[in-house]
Amino acid sequence: MLWRGATPAGGLAAILTGVIVAYGLPPLYEASVDPKGELVRHFGPTLNAFHTVFIAFLCAVAANVFVSRLGTVDEEKAKMTWVGLGITRPADLQLFGMKLIGSLLLFALLAVLMTGQLISPMAAAVVASVWTFIMFLDSMFKVVLSAATKGRAYSLLREDLFWAGLLAACAVFMLFYFY
Q1: CB 82 within 8 A of CB 93
Q2: What is the pTM of this model?
Q3: Nearest CA to 175 among 101, 111, 109?
Q4: For position 96, what pLDDT does the model report?
């Protein structure tokens, strides 16, 4: 939905790769890492589910790109992206990408500080979860301000983005806290 170059075969490869990596990585990690090595020192003797999901996501994206590049793109189906279907504008998608990159950089910085024992997992979890919720706020405020300009009262609690932001913030909190 984001990339015009994706093909059905690439999508299938991404789904299969994601499932295989998500289920296969934890036992592979446990069987292959040195119990006294650096990986175990950083990630523990068993791989956290959040780390597994992230690695499975990266592998699925790589599989989608690789397999899609091998095939040919149907130009009619290539229009079925978020922008092509009119779900979002290119500027909004660019803003989303910038937020995503900024968030990943902040999360990486917090992870480095946390693994270097410069901040506690609790502090990293709070900062990361607050940041995540803030990333949802501007979209929510657009809806509220739009309603206000029309003279209508609007509660954030009625907005799906509020609950999605809260859920994402909780997931990010757990990712850092249960490191």
Answers
A1: yes
A2: 0.66
A3: 111
A4: 84
